[in-house]
């Protein structure tokens, strides 16, 4: 297929070698066959990327397009009508470019969330997905350039396409999922600036602590949601995590609110008790890099560092990506280790995946770091983020391949099993060395997985995140709550023996208490709707970057008392 494209362009160049003396750039015309072929290939790739049609369906989509094009004589109408002015631009190119961006982001991350796009543009996209994504970006750029030229050729040579160009542009704009969130967030700008969610926010405070507070090991398993525990759909992929849960407290029903569905958003939700509403227009320099991440709220690291904890973050990917390094640096962590720090310590520096270190290497370094922390005085906390389950295919480590057999490069359940087994193996190694004494272990997925090979099975039922606790004073139990990742934050604090204000921190409620969570009281749909309509909580998160809010009399930090409007989201009925 690639040779056909090259041949087409070579033939085109040969056809134009003999140029008249009055040659103009506008005189260059790409052959009809090449233009239709390029458009067909791009269309076929888009269809196979955005649907469940396998990649080998691409030539069939392209062939169908070419057949339709030749049947309808696209580019060669029987009664051609030349444009008065040769076409060198089309407004449809902008919608086409936006679709190209959407497909690139979808291929890179599995799913596209506009809030995630805004956040990553501002927080930094350095080293995302490794060198292969740079190559992919270059490929996409060349493909889009060829598509633009081919589409312009078609417009110039076929008046029928010129007639529908405006409607095509509108259709492409209206159908692009990337733009859905623009109108949603725009509504918050032009409507009354509500503050319902901001009123639910409780500043995290530790009122009392144990004399011998426990250490904390927080393991984020990339995209390993609890939905995989269903053996009828997913076999034994989650079995090792189920075995871990039999020794601790497992929560079912930890759902995913809006603005918590990517890695940084999931970590901030579970460590700060609030969804990650991007800085957006609140940032004075909208697309210059952020210098701080959610500076307006206190998070887990802030509270623990005030209690004398020595804190470490470790992840296989670069800490420059998505502001991870900035977040942990700004919120109390002393040691921050990512790919750039750990790669030189590998026995084989080339043993890397597109994002960074494989999980077996990361866990080896995790054991070393916990040994170091245990040798020093005082409590410690370590947050660890894996990569094995990363959509769309995962990155199983060599240790898993030795155990499970060859990886086919597509089956996400293979990677889920790898992630679960490596986590269980890590805990067994640490326990055998006595490194988990007086340590609370928290295992959680950072967010629900994005599009993967098991997608159709995953969406058959309501999906929830992994969240389990193990350690001193933690009962062996399995509980079902209507909760979200913001409730993880206060639950961790109370599991560590800290007394917090009304069992609350941020928007979260400790699941160890009987207090109702935000979605138990109001539903996910209601909370998500308020998040789309309000700016006050967003301003709190990014205080210092945003224009200063008007000072209001501070309400005492006690039990939140709601007005009728707060409770229902509606205006209170007038008294009859």
Automatic annotation (TrEMBL):
Gene3D superfamilies in UniProt: Alkaline Phosphatase, subunit A (3.40.720.10)
Superkingdom, taxonomy of origin: Bacteria
Pfam families noted in UniProt: Sulfatase
Record's keyword terms, sorted: Cell membrane, Membrane, Transferase, Transmembrane, Transmembrane helix
Sequence ranges assigned to domain Sulfatase N-terminal in this UniProt record: 214-497
InterPro entries: Alkaline_phosphatase_core_sf, OpgB/LTA_synthase_biosynth, Sulfatase_N
UniProt topology in membrane: Multi-pass membrane protein
Transmembrane portions of the chain: 29-47, 53-72, 84-105, 134-154, 166-183
Single GO MF descriptor: transferase activity
Entries under SUPFAM superfamilies matching the protein: Alkaline phosphatase-like
GO cellular component labels: plasma membrane
PANTHER family noted in UniProt: LIPOTEICHOIC ACID SYNTHASE, PHOSPHOGLYCEROL TRANSFERASE I
Name of the featured protein: Phosphoglycerol transferase I
Organism from which the protein derives: Halomonas chromatireducens
